[in-house]
Design a protein that fits this description.
2 strands, two-stranded antiparallel sheet, 65% helix, 12 helices
C-alpha cells in the first residue's frame, strides 16, 4: 500500500493552487493604492474640518454648509442645463454622421480618420483653441460676433456677455452665451467617439431586414424609427450614460474655456469642486461634494447596467 506524504503547512502558499492569487496580487495592490485608499480618505475628509490645531471631527456639518450655499443650487442648475444640451446635441449629431458614414461613401476611411482627431486632443487644449476663436479683437469669429447688425445693439462677446433673464425663477434657462459655447465645444470634443460607437452598432444591423422593410414600402424615417433605433438601443444607452458621466466629471474644458464665468454662469458641479478644494483650500467641504458627485456617478452606472440587462433579457 502506497503511503502519501503530507504537505508541510509552510509550503502551501507556494503551491499551484495559489498561483492565480500571486498573479493578480500586483493589480490588487495598485487598485488599493489608487482607488480604495483615496475613496476611504475622501469619506474621512468629508466629516473633518481643518483647524489651527489640526483636523477636527464635525460630522455632517460639511454637507449642511454645502447645501446651504447659494452657489451649490446654482451649480446644480448649470450642470443640468449643460448635461441636457451636451448629451442631446452629441447623440443627435453622432447618429446623423453615423448614418452618413454607413452609406459606404468614397474615402469613408479618410472621413473616419479625420473625424477622430478631436478625440485625441486633451480637454485643456480643446478649451484653449475654442477660447481663441471668440476672443475679442483677434479671434477668428470676433468679426462676426461683434457685428452690431448681426447681434444688436453692440455685438456679442461670448465670454463676457451677461446671462439673459431666466424663464423659470432661479433656474438658469435660457443659458448664458458662454454656456452655449461650452456645450458646442464639449460636443465637438466628444462627437468622434460617440459617432464611431453608433456606427459600429449600426453596421451590425442585418441588411436583409432593412431591404425587406423597403420592399414592404417603409421609407427612410420608418426604417430608422422601427428598425435601426430598436436594434441599436443597448449601444445608444451605453453612449448616453457615457456622455453623462464624462459631462458630469469633466472640468478641463470649463477650466480652460470659461473659467466658470462670466460670473458663475458656467460653474458646474465639477468646477465648483475644483474651486472649493484648490482655490479655497476647503478640503472637508470639497470631499463632501466629491461624495455627492460620486453617488450620482454610481447611480448612473447602476442604471446603465440595469437597462442593458433588461435589454439582454428581452431579446
Amino acid at each position: 500500500m502506497q503511503k502519501t506524504i503530507p504537505r508541510k503547512p509552510g509550503k502551501r502558499l507556494l503551491s499551484k493552487d495559489w498561483l492565480p492569487f500571486w498573479l493578480i496580487l500586483p493589480t490588487v495592490i495598485v487598485l488599493l493604492i489608487v482607488q480604495v485608499y483615496p475613496a476611504l480618505y475622501t469619506v474621512w475628509l468629508s466629516v473633518q474640518e481643518r483647524e489651527p490645531a489640526g483636523w477636527v471631527y464635525v460630522g455632517a456639518k460639511n454637507f449642511e454648509r454645502l447645501f446651504g450655499m447659494g452657489l451649490f443650487s446654482e451649480s446644480v442648475g448649470h450642470t443640468i442645463v449643460f448635461l441636457v444640451g451636451y448629451v442631446s446635441l452629441t447623440m443627435v449629431l453622432g447618429f446623423v454622421i453615423a448614418l452618413l458614414l454607413n452609406r459606404k461613401l468614397r474615402l469613408s476611411g479618410l472621413y473616419v480618420t479625420l473625424l477622430f482627431i478631436p478625440w485625441i486632443i486633451a480637454d485643456i487644449i480643446a478649451g484653449l483653441v475654442f477660447r481663441l476663436l471668440v476672443v475679442p479683437d483677434y479671434g477668428l469669429f470676433s468679426g462676426i460676433l461683434q457685428n452690431p447688425a448681426l447681434f444688436p445693439p453692440n455685438g456679442l462677446s461670448v465670454l463676457t456677455a451677461v446671462p439673459p433673464r431666466s424663464w423659470f425663477g432661479d433656474f438658469p434657462f435660457p443659458p448664458a452665451p458662454a454656456m452655449v459655447f461650452l456645450i458646442l465645444a464639449s460636443t465637438w470634443r466628444a462627437l468622434p467617439f460617440i459617432t464611431l460607437l453608433l456606427l459600429a452598432a449600426m453596421q451590425t444591423v442585418p441588411t436583409e431586414i432593412i431591404e425587406s422593410s423597403r420592399i414592404d414600402g417603409a421609407n427612410s424615417w420608418q426604417v430608422i424609427r422601427h428598425i435601426l433605433i430598436p436594434l441599436m438601443l443597448p449601444t445608444m444607452v451605453v453612449a448616453l450614460f457615457s456622455l453623462t458621466l464624462s459631462g458630469m466629471n469633466g472640468v478641463g474644458m470649463v477650466f480652460s474655456l470659461t473659467g466658470g464665468g462670466p460670473g458663475t454662469s458656467t460653474e458646474v458641479l465639477s468646477y465648483m469642486l475644483y474651486t472649493i478644494g484648490w482655490r479655497q483650500l476647503n478640503f472637508g467641504r470639497a470631499a463632501a461634494l466629491a461624495l455627492l458627485i460620486g453617488l450620482i456617478n454610481w447611480l448612473l452606472i447602476m442604471g446603465t447596467l440595469r437597462v442593458t440587462r433588461l435589454e439582454e433579457r428581452s431579446r
